[in-house]
């Protein structure tokens, strides 16, 4: 079975983080994503937006990783938002009811795309 690449990059500005995920989130790649969240949450951003425009597939394991990150962020008064999910991922969010748990954006919010200086 070919190894599916999961690329995760994160940019933190002014207490907000944008995590860009490319690839498939499943049983095999979820631990990598979990580790990225653990590292990110140590830095303490209160708002995390996940750019899922590059995610082709996300199974229940992947959704559980997102839910556990949301829970940890909410415990400290923050939040986790999903941006730009592809139709397949959006459908999973709708079928599972998670589209009402996460704030879902059609694209990464513009205020997070501009580099803030200071």
UniProtKB/TrEMBL annotation:
Q: Where is the STAS domain?
A: 6-118
User: What family classification does the UniProt entry report for this protein?
Assistant: Belongs to the anti-sigma-factor antagonist family.
InterPro entries (UniProt xref): Anti-sigma_ant, STAS_dom, STAS_dom_sf
Q: What is this protein called?
A: Anti-sigma factor antagonist
UniProt-recorded Gene Ontology molecular function terms: anti-sigma factor antagonist activity
Q: Which domain of life is it from?
A: Bacteria
Pfam family name, one:
STAS
């Amino acid at each position: 079975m070919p190894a599916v690449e999961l690329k995760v990059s994160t940019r933190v500005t002014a207490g907000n983080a944008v995590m860009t995920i490319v690839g498939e989130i499943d049983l095999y790649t979820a631990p990598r994503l979990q580790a990225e969240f653990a590292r990110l949450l140590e830095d303490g951003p209160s708002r995390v937006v996940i750019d899922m425009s590059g995610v082709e597939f996300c199974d229940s394991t992947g959704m559980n990783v997102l839910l556990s990150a949301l829970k940890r962020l909410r415990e400290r008064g923050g939040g986790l938002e999903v941006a730009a999910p592809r139709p397949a991922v959006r459908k999973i969010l709708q079928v599972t009811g998670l589209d009402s748990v996460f704030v879902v954006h059609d694209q990464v919010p513009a205020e997070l795309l501009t580099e803030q200086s200071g």
